[in-house]
């Protein structure tokens, strides 16, 4: 990318740059974070508070990106009563109330494969319009719903393939 393109892109985010001087780094970082939404917390819900769901509930790195898991939902009573989790876990039937009261529109899906589509459909019915899908199930959603699929197994397989190619090329 050329310097002209970088200046044009930065100008779309910030008008504080000075010709032949540039930007004050601290101000530019603040404006970029504001533009990307990192300065305000976006609440999300998590559906499926099993093993992976609990790991995500305990992960502190989301805050760095302006993401807060406000609550988790599950249908398993033993998971719901777990008090070792820093976020509340409610029965899935309470998702509608929380989403309508708080205007949360983004969710994380970590349910078993056989429940993925029905849980996704319910999330959409409750007002969720963007879903990060940790299940290996391709979800069918309306055109106005965003899906981000995260397939850890596929990512590891790709990494393994790249490693084997790198090792082969080093011989």
UniProtKB/TrEMBL annotation:
Domain CoA-binding: 37-138
Cellular component per GO, a single term: cytoplasm
InterPro entries, per the entry: CoA-bd, NAD(P)-bd_dom_sf, Tscrpt_rep_Rex, WH-like_DNA-bd_sf
Keyword Repressor carried by entry: yes
Gene, per the UniProt record: rex
UniProt-recorded name of the protein: Redox-sensing transcriptional repressor Rex
Annotated compartments: Cytoplasm
Alphabetical keyword list: Cytoplasm, DNA-binding, NAD, Repressor, Transcription, Transcription regulation
Species this protein is from: Herbinix luporum
């Amino acid at each position: 990318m050329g310097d002209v393109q970088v200046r044009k892109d930065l100008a779309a985010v910030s008008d504080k740059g000075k010709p032949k001087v540039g930007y004050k780094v601290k101000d530019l970082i603040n404006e970029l974070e504001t533009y990307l939404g990192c300065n305000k917390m976006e609440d999300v819900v998590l559906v499926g508070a099993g093993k992976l769901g609990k790991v995500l509930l305990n992960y502190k790195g989301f805050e760095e990106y302006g993401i807060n898991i406000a609550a988790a939902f599950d249908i398993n009573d033993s998971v719901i009563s777990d008090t070792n989790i820093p976020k509340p876990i409610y029965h899935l039937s309470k998702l509608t109330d929380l989403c309508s009261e708080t205007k949360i529109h983004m969710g994380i899906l970590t349910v078993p494969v056989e429940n993925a589509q029905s849980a996704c459909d319910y999330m959409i019915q409750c007002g969720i319009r963007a879903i990060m899908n940790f299940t290996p199930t391709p979800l069918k959603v309306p055109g106005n719903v965003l899906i981000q699929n995260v397939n850890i197994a596929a990512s590891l397989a790709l990494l393994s393939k790249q490693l084997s190619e790198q090792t082969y090329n080093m011989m």
